[in-house]
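Hello,

Our lab assistant flagged a job as stuck in the queue for most of the afternoon. It eventually completed. Since we weren't sure the result was trustworthy after the delay, we are filing this so someone can double-check. Below is the sequence as submitted and the structure that was eventually returned. Let us know if re-running is recommended.
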Amino acid sequence: MSDRCPAIEELEGLLALPEADPRRRHVEDCARCRSLADMLGEFASTTAAPAAAGFAAADASLRETIAELTGVRESREPEGAPQPAAPREFVPEPAPARVRARAPWWSFGALRPAFAFAALLVVASAGVALWRANAPEPVMRDAAGAESFVANPARPVAGGLELSWSAEPGSDEYRVVFLDGALREIARTKIVTDTQLTLESAALPDGLRHGDQVAWYVEARAGGDFVAQTAPRTLRVP
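-- returned structure --
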């Protein structure tokens, strides 16, 4: 058998070619191809099939007979021959989900949500405490809802400004507190028992500067304890 030898199923077509065709001449000159062609012709000319012939396996039987007689095994399978079943692809089954053991109630992992909630409560409590500590003191009001302790607008007088306010029942002393633009305390006056004082430009409290715009309010005290404060007002330092 040479590399030019045709396959068995091609022999019938080659024998039908004209005698001058080089492909047919090869079949006639090659001992292997000529033997195969003779067997094929004999097989094709047989009209009476054996009683127990299996037509479905005829082609495979013929190929096997030819291979035994010639000693040549064909590697090419004839058309229409049953193909071996494709190997079944192995798909590994998913491993069962690992069940996570539940931590006992006394373990650290089980208590994490409780610790987080407790920490949140601590932070929230601290925030409320800070807000209350920095929140302005309540302003006392009379029965009709109006403020009973108020500061009057600053009034220019010779040498400065006059600051005055209403009397707060139960109070025996007052003090004026000054704030900057960020509402931080920057100065305060001495304690007085009257409901007015003069902010002298020649004797300003420490922390005040001429021409600054500041806020001010009045604290009412009784026996040294805080009682109430007015709503803040603004003024320009004389």
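-- support follow-up --
The delay was a queue issue, not a problem with the job. The result is valid. Residues 112-134 form the longest helix (23 residues). The mean pLDDT is 76.
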